[in-house]
Amino acid sequence: MGTLHLVRHGQASFGADDYDQLSARGMEQAVRLGQFWRDRGLRFDAVLTGTLRRHAQTLQGIAEGLGGVPEALALPGLNEYDSHALIEAIHPDPLPKPDTPELYRHHFRLLCDALAQWMGGTISPRGMPSWDGFSDGVRSALEHVRRHHAGQQVLLVSSGGPISTAVGQVLGTAPEVTIALNMRIRNSAVTEFSISPKRLMLQTFNTLPHLNELAHQDWITHA
């Protein structure tokens, strides 16, 4: 039986004008994950990613640490939702940059509320697909893995939204549980599904085995 390794991108640039860019720490997290897998002799048969810059940069770091990966299949269906469009749909007034703990918490409270309304079909954020359309993109990627890569080791690099949606689809969770899972996925965290021709099954969620050593404890980030 094969394994699908779903990796959330490394730390990006939260609060900056362009979030879609790994920080220096984010690249270190990705390289470290690749090194961890290299030391354990893991090699991948196939790679899937979203098409965002932070996905490509994370894959680049993993490949550097691992010593190479197969050419990636880039799928827009693995891209993250637009958090700014979601928040704007329920709070159209401009918000200050979330550069204090309270503003940070306020940002994510609004995001969770907006996600719930989007998933429930009560808002249609500008420039975004419906929740069903977003979910279908994730489901299509998982079906591709199940149909074509049973028995293989597969790497999938994406974001918290698609990964939590994938877990929700495999486990059949309620929307509020999917949102809660989304809010807990850490940068460069690994979630694993076993792959068989009939289905995917959850093995692990949101693990950081590559950062378990004391020297890397301050490398653990969430945004």
Indicate the CATH class of the largest domain: Alpha Beta
CATH topology of the largest domain: Rossmann fold
- The end-to-end distance, rounded to whole angstroms, is 33 Å
Order of helices and strands: EHEHEHHHEHHEE
Largest sheet data: 6 strands, mixed
Number of domain modules: 2
Strands of the widest sheet, in order across it, are: 3-2-4-1-5-6
- Coarse morphology: globular
Strand residues, percent:
15-25%
Average pLDDT taken over every residue: 95
**Count of DSSP-assigned helices:** 7
The parts where pLDDT drops under 50 for at least 5 residues are: none
- What is the alpha-carbon Rg in Å? 17 Å
Q: Architecture of the largest domain, CATH level 2?
A: 3-Layer(aba) Sandwich
Under CATH, the homologous superfamily of the largest domain reads Phosphoglycerate mutase-like
Oligomeric state of the chains present here: single chain
Please provide the count of β strands.
6
Secondary structure class reads alpha/beta
Residues in helix, % = 40-55%
Provide the fold topology:
Layout: E1 2-8, H1 24-39, E2 46-49, H2 53-66, E3 72-74, H3 83-90, H4 101-119, H5 131-148, E4 153-158, H6 160-171, H7 175-184, E5 190-195, E6 200-207
Helix pairs in contact: 1-2, 3-4, 4-7, 5-6, 6-7
InterPro entries: His_Pase_superF_clade-1, His_PPase_superfam, Mito_Ser/Thr_phosphatase
Pfam families: His_Phos_1
Organism: Acidovorax lacteus
